[in-house]
Amino acid sequence: QVTLVESGGGLVQAGDSLRLSCAASGRSFSNYAMGWFRQVPGKEREFVAAISRNGRNTRYADSVKDRFTISRDCTEDAVSLQMNGLKFEDTAVYYCAAKSTVMPITTPSGTGDYNNWGQGTQVTVSS
């Protein structure tokens, strides 16, 4: 198991940028593919972005492509989500997730693919 703690959420205006961070502790960080998901009340948790174990492969939801960037820092055991050009519809609780995998390039996008979750951080974008 790995423990995940998100930070960096807040209240911003449309068009602003925000950077979320997720610190991992526990098992070897390099054994995990990492992902970001988000959820609004009354809706299912949805995929935002994922990065492979080796950090060379990424995947994004169409709604955030070209605006969000996921990255991982293996020296700090952390993954980040840089969010630019924020829109009102990006308002949600953002969750960091980790999937233990032997595959170095996989970028899982399903909530059921991940077995470790953080507690979430609120991002609110005012229009």
Q: In words, what does this structure look like?
A:
It contains no helices and eleven strands. The chain has strands at 2-7, 10-13, 18-26, 32-39, 46-51, 58-60, 68-73, 78-83, 92-100, 116-117, 121-126. Strands 2, 4, 5, 6, 9, 10 and 11 form a seven-stranded mixed sheet that branches. A four-stranded antiparallel sheet has the order 1-3-8-7, with no helix packed on it. The mean pLDDT is 95.
Keywords:
4-stranded antiparallel β-sheet, 127 residues, globular, mainly beta
Helix-and-strand structural type? mainly beta
- Count of DSSP E strands? 11
Order of helices and strands: EEEEEEEEEEE
**Radius of gyration of CA atoms, rounded to a whole number:** 13 Å
Proportion of residues in extended strands: over 45%
In DSSP terms (H or I, runs of 4 or more residues), the helix count works out at 0
SSE layout and pairings?
Layout: E1 2-7, E2 10-13, E3 18-26, E4 32-39, E5 46-51, E6 58-60, E7 68-73, E8 78-83, E9 92-100, E10 116-117, E11 121-126
Parallel strand pairs: 2-11
Antiparallel strand pairs: 1-3, 3-8, 4-5, 4-9, 5-6, 7-8, 9-10, 9-11
